[in-house]
């Protein structure tokens, strides 16, 4: 049974179409993250699910019920907003009770529900405080509490952590994950932060320019990006994308031939983008690796590891290396090794992933 | 100061920049006066811009205060302010035994109370109504129409009111005539003065006054409404539970300012609309001061009346501000 199903969803503002026919099924209890750069249509898609934006074309169903024309309150969804959307004049308890009072839930039930959810979120001691008297993390918890008390069928999160500092974001990310595991409610989460997407999602939907680029589990997307956009969006730093040309025995990158997975002979001469993840580059040779001479530009120490910025021929290459407590030995690196099995190839014109074995 | 720079690492760039500027300009060995002079030399443009306002305050508000002392003197224009003899609170004793003055105080309070009761909520209600209008052109047209009376001079407003309530050709009496009733000369009847005066004030100022509240409404975070929509609130509930509480600080500030002006009933409009037959309900402190001071030449008694007015207004605004700060965390200062 699907939790949320989007079929050919289109959104236009006047003559301008901003979401171009999205097809997506979110399974019940699944946590799906919509990720993409600013303006890619992810928030608009979420707001269409919430009922805050009209759907221009297509069908939206929530738990098998078509809800295109259903008012937001009757869709049984709860939304957590980017800026929390807490009522500044109400205390925490009243903020959380707002939706329940509107629905005329009996007072004692409201109190019980608020107490239970406050307990889960660690807000019991803050129930009589106003939002202005809370920290960013506490406000975020109240915003989630307000959604949870409604016991909705679907949670919608619109970049809920983007206003928090890096440390708090990491902490709240874990809390959201724990909460989802505990409550098991279908969730659609929008973010532009690929780390949030990777850590939280059962499945990630990568969006670009109003369309879906790829849908899959975090590791599927990380290991087998469907195109250069996805390859460049996920991973920190993102996958290196170097211009190259297929040869009889591999691919020519920066004047050096490296081995790749699969037969290239029949494609020799084809222009490609060679994708190599920074963490797959090694300083020592291994089984199935190819040597790639580089000119080192910069070493950025990060503690246990360092980011090395270099060029292979004219192609820029960023990779990671262990510091072993010292970065001096990294200053003289002139050659790296690339495992053939982890090299990804993309068509130079379309940017789509190439499968040479097929 | 170097230590301050180190501790400023967690601050915003702007704060750090300001601190760096302060560190640059304030040398620890300099004396206080040298630092002050240094500060004026560096920031003279800001003080130059402030100067016209300071001069205005000095000339029109502080210098006249010198003349307030005549409220405690037997003032004679021939002896001047300084040469007139002190007589203590004699004028105030006269004031509080003067039936006309006490009647004027009572009228001022009653008219102000009516203004506060009906005139203060009017722009708020108007702003809330405008906020609910979705048709942009209709909204703009309606706003322009209700703003217009504010820009009309009080003399013309009074002329319109006198004409509208005229017993011969006024629209009000024409309408009354449609129902077979006799015309009423409203502006000569004391019982009609206050409703007409307060109503005129609302008609003239409610539209323009709504701008402040419309601006406050525009500042309400739109996601509060979106969140409420998802929670199931209708427009009526959103107005009561989000819009009004969100603009409450603005409402309270405007209320404090209004309370400070309680004794300042629109002097020109009263002068233009009242006549001896309506003094009973229309004569307010300011019109009484005008008659005593300028028409009867009792400047000292009029000054005592004006001082009384100012003290009452000061006490009221202080009280309102304190109460507002205590109960709603909102205050002017």
Automatic annotation (TrEMBL), chain A:
GO terms for molecular function: ATP binding. It comes from the Bacteria. PROSITE patterns: ABC_TRANSPORTER_1, ABC_TRANSPORTER_2. Residues 4-234 form the ABC transporter domain. Gene3D superfamilies: 2.40.50.100, Nucleic acid-binding proteins, P-loop containing nucleotide triphosphate hydrolases. SMART domains: AAA (SM00382). Keywords: ATP-binding, Nucleotide-binding, Transport. CDD domains: ABC_MalK_N (cd03301). NCBIfam families: PRK11650.1. Belongs to the ABC transporter superfamily. This is Sn-glycerol-3-phosphate ABC transporter ATP-binding protein UgpC. It comes from Celeribacter arenosi. The gene is ugpC_2.
From TrEMBL, chain B:
Coiled coil: none annotated. Its main location: membrane. Signal peptide: none annotated. InterPro entries: MetI-like, MetI-like_sf, UgpAE/MalFG_permease. It is found in: Cell membrane. Pfam families: BPD_transp_1. The chain crosses the membrane at residues 44-62, 111-130, 151-181, 201-221, 242-260, 301-323. Keywords: Cell membrane, Membrane, Transmembrane, Transmembrane helix, Transport. Residues 105-320 form the ABC transmembrane type-1 domain. Gene3D superfamilies: MetI-like. The keyword Ion transport does not apply. It is a multi-pass membrane protein. Belongs to the binding-protein-dependent transport system permease family. This is Sugar ABC transporter permease. It comes from Celeribacter arenosi.
